[in-house]
Amino acid sequence: MKNIFLFIRNYFTLLCFVVLQITSMVMLSKSSDAHDAFFSNAINEVTGKINKQYNGFYEYFSLKEVNRQLVAENAALKNKLNNYIIAPDSTQRLVVDSTVTDTIGRYRKFTFLPATVIGNNITLQNNFLTLERGSLQGVKKGMSVISPQGIVGSVIDVSDNMCRVMSVLHRSSKVSAMLKKDNNAGSIEWDGENPEYLTLKNIPKSAKITIGDTVVTSNYSANFPAYIPVGTIAGKTADPASNFYTLKVKTATNFASVQQVYLIKNVRFAEQTAIEAKVMKINE
């Protein structure tokens, strides 16, 4: 309290001037419409600038929540696309989750679950991502992972609330992909060098390759839906010992900055992988 009285005593003249100045401005604005309009406009301009700065500050720190909401909305929209709906199973063994069926009995082959990336490497020979979503939230081993731009990888391990994803930037990763324009299919791999480029192998030399052509996932993948972007062709090499091209593909996904992804569940994944493994065993 003593400091307050000392402050008033030291700055009494200045404080009186400020109070009288404000009082005179209020009286002047009340007695004159022109001055009232002038002061109102000035105050509105100042408060408008302050509000603009505050809103910009608030929006910056709310971007994470806005991004989360957009990812959830996009997942809901993807789950409504007809591209991932197939006819109802006509066999007698019909067990369908009602949450993924429509009104005419068709059910969704692929469902999308949003997730946040909480761990990611791109500098190793074998790179992984960690997602903040696990078995309690519907994640299973083998599910594919995509970003809003393109493919990311596949789930290899799951805990209650998190999962581990083998990135396509992994020497053991192989994804079936094709040229979007003519459906010539091959295998997408990574050579362990530049994280911005993948390699598409086994494209026949009969295919007409143009730099900039789009590469997408093929129908032959058990976990990835078809036509998910992989990247664009940045170069090609003809293998003289075979009838195939090896293509350099610029990745659609920026792995250095990926933050939000979608996990994709194929309701027939177990059935497809089981029968493919059985055929491979017979051929051995």
What does this structure look like?
By secondary structure, the chain is α+β, with helices and mostly antiparallel strands. It folds into two domains: 2-60, no CATH class; 82-284, Thrombin, subunit H, CATH 2.40.10.340. 31% of the residues lie in helices and 31% in strands. The chain contains five helices and 14 strands. The strands form three sheets. The chain has a six-stranded antiparallel β-barrel with strand order 3-4-7-6-5-14. A six-stranded antiparallel β-barrel has the order 8-9-10-13-12-11. α2 (12-31) packs across α3. The longest helix has 29 residues, at 33-61. The radius of gyration is 30 Å and the shape is elongated.
In the CATH hierarchy, what is the architecture of the largest domain at level 2? Beta Barrel
How many beta-strand segments? 14
Under CATH, the topology of the largest domain is which? Answer: Thrombin, subunit H
Helical percent range? Answer: 25-40%
In short:
This protein has helices at 2-10, 12-31, 33-61, 63-78, 269-283; strands spanning 85-86, 107-108, 110-120, 126-131, 144-146, 151-158, 163-170, 175-179, 185-189, 197-204, 214-217, 229-238, 244-251, 260-266.
Key features?
6-stranded antiparallel beta barrel, about 280 residues, 5 helices, elongated, 6-stranded antiparallel barrel, alpha+beta, single chain, Thrombin, subunit H
Please specify the SSE layout and strand pairing.
Elements lengths: L1 H9 L1 H20 L1 H29 L1 H16 L6 E2 L20 E2 L1 E11 L5 E6 L12 E3 L4 E8 L4 E8 L4 E5 L5 E5 L7 E8 L9 E4 L11 E10 L5 E8 L8 E7 L2 H15 L1
Antiparallel strand pairs: 1-2, 3-4, 3-14, 4-7, 5-6, 5-14, 6-7, 8-9, 8-11, 9-10, 10-13, 11-12, 12-13
Helix pairs in contact: 2-3
